[in-house]
Amino acid sequence: MSQIDLSVIIPLYNEEESLPELCNWIRNVADAQNWKYEILLIDDGSNDGSWEVIQMLKKSFPEQIVGISFQRNYGKSAALHTGFAACKGKVVVTMDADLQDSPDELPSLYKMIAIDGYDLVSGWKKKRHDPIMKTLPSKFFNFVTSKVSGIQLHDFNCGLKAYNQKVVKTVEIYGEMHRYIPLIAKWNGFQKIGEKSVEHRARKYGVTKFGLERFVFGFLDLLSISFVTRFRKRPMHFFGSLGSLSFLAGLLIVVGLIIEKNYKIYNGLKYRDVVSHPLFYISLVAVIIGMQLFLAGYIAELMNINSNKKNEYNIRETI
Question: Which stretches of the chain are DSSP H helices?
Answer without folding.
Answer: 19-32, 50-60, 76-86, 106-114, 132-149, 165-168, 181-187, 213-231, 235-266, 278-306
